[in-house]
Amino acid sequence: MNNFFTTLTFLFITYFSVSQSYESKIDSIVAISYNQNEPGISILVAKEGESIYSKAFGKSNLELNTPLETNSVFQIGSITKQFTAISILMLEEQGKLSVEDKIGKYIPEYAEIGKDITIHHLLNHTSGIKNRTPVGDKGFISKTNMSPTELIAYFKDEPLEFKPGERFKYSNAGYILLGRIIEIVSGQPYSDFIEQNIFDKIGMKNSSCGDPKQGIPNPTTGYIIEQNDFVKSDDMNLSLAYSAGAILSTTEDLLKWQNALLSNTLLKASSIKQAMTPTLLNSGKRVPYGYGFRFSKLGNSPVIAHTGSTKGFTSIALFLPKEKLYITALTNCNCKNVNNVAKQVAELFVSIPDDKITEAKHNQPERKSINVPSEILSDYTGTYEVKPNVNLTIGLDNTNQLYLLAPGQTKKVELFAETQNHFFVKIVDAEITFNKNEANNVISLTMNQSGRKIIAKKN
């Protein structure tokens, strides 16, 4: 339900609020999913390496009623994998390992079963090692502290699912092995290596790896949904996530990370290109994942991204090289679609120019509308609940024109009748049907956009 409505509302914002600043447009997108009285979101948008939008919405702790801030610290989950991958490449540049090394050279447990697995296979999830970790198993004790050796012992006897390089299958276990390799080669605990060679070097002062030895400033509490209410998630000992997902950070620090990658502060350009290149399987098939980076497209714009999730936290960081745009969004509840929010924000910067929109509208076959008596139209007016505390308004102006007003918007969207109860929108592929009960009273409306439907009950 939320995905459809936010997409529809976004289209209204895009087409009708041209005079709005990017700030107010982003505010509108975020506010659809996050309000000030619930667990929230910290979101940052940067253009050419400079922050152009940085805000936080919602609470960092519901019980203490503390608001989120732009420097609030979140668990970033699997975005950690980028740091692990880059650390491996840093060690390769130092001549201490090669991504073509067999992992049995460093992990004795894999000398036999992993005789054909290279570090390269771990980095791009093509090793065949099952994604089996304590965190992934039901009933695991989330506060348990486990060493890297104990984590590896948890899955080391599992048979491979396929031959190395034959398939792509996401594996946290593979990235746990990478963390252990970093420790063996560097002679440092994984967390120390990350903090000294990355955080300290590029000024990520509000970031840490694993459970901090001392309290962190501006911490956030994670939440889940149970019986339609927000409940604190279990505190997870981050040793369990280790090099696959144990980093805590802020949106501001993640921008420093992104800028360091693009400026070759940590690695040569050739190594960064290696990390950000799609994988080739043994068959020659291309897989949209590199070393800790996923690849996709938004329209015609390439996207390089990764997401993350731990108990009570979700995150996303995405980069659009064509637009030189970086977006990172961190949340303290795993109950909402932060990926969809980030995508809609990105679409603001890759949207079709106004002249192309006009051209496209003129090239579309015109749908014919009919006149409907005002007494019928007036029955449709009122507010319709899309979700709790989010309503859209159907109104009728003095020219007998029915319109829709989306939450938080001031521009009216005209609705044109094809039948007495079925209406369409001219500027987007959207339709609305008004539904009646047996007593002929309007009880709801059904919105349909590109085949996706949602029913909103009339208040």
Automatic annotation (TrEMBL):
InterPro entries: AmpC-like, Beta-lactam-related, Beta-lactam/transpept-like, Peptidase_S12_Pab87-rel_C. Residues 35-336 form the Beta-lactamase-related domain. It comes from the Bacteria. SUPFAM superfamilies: beta-lactamase/transpeptidase-like (SSF56601). Residues 367-448 form the Peptidase S12 Pab87-related C-terminal domain. Pfam families: Beta-lactamase, DUF3471. This is CubicO group peptidase (Beta-lactamase class C family).
